[in-house]
Amino acid sequence: MPAHTKRARGVLGEGPLLAPEHKVVVDDDAVAARAVGRPFVHKPYLGLSNYVNNLRRLGYSEADVAGAGSDRLIDDLVLHGTPAGIRGRLAEHLDAGADHVGVHVLGPDPLTGYRRLAEVLW
């Protein structure tokens, strides 16, 4: 999440490399994309108290982190949409101070997702 990236850059200062990772589903059907992404957030992350506590510090509510996560949480942690839309959201990490963003494509055919993203990424 770009908010976490900004916070991390503030703690680290300008010197160290900051390279967050973001999960993506290259699909503009939000319901389908959430169905792919939610299991990757639910287990293990929402079962880890340190991770959940960090999400709360970043402004997510108890309802957001309950169960398998709210749609809002899943949408923020697993970007979805068109390749151009995903590119724009990933750029928010760079604007927040990241030097690089690792992209983890999820779905039944991640290689196709990477190829589609490669057409629009830097």
In short:
The protein is mostly helical and 122 residues long.
Chart the SSEs and their pairings.
Elements: H1 2-12, E1 21-25, H2 30-42, H3 49-57, H4 62-65, H5 71-77, E2 78-80, H6 83-95, E3 102-105, H7 110-118
Parallel strand pairs: 1-2, 1-3
Helix pairs in contact: 1-6, 2-5
**SS class:** mainly alpha
Percent of residues in helices comes to: 40-55%
The percent range for strand residues is 5-15%
The overall pLDDT, averaged over residues, is 96
The global form is flat
Distance between the termini: 19 Å
User: How is the main sheet built?
Assistant: 3 strands, parallel
Pick out the low-confidence regions. none
Organism: Amycolatopsis rhabdoformis
InterPro entries: Luciferase-like_sf (IPR036661)
Protein name: LLM class F420-dependent oxidoreductase
What does this structure look like?
The protein is mainly alpha-helical and 122 residues long. The chain has one domain. It is built from seven helices and three strands, in the order αβααααβαβα. A three-stranded parallel β-sheet has the order 2-1-3. It starts with a helix and ends with a helix. This is LLM class F420-dependent oxidoreductase.
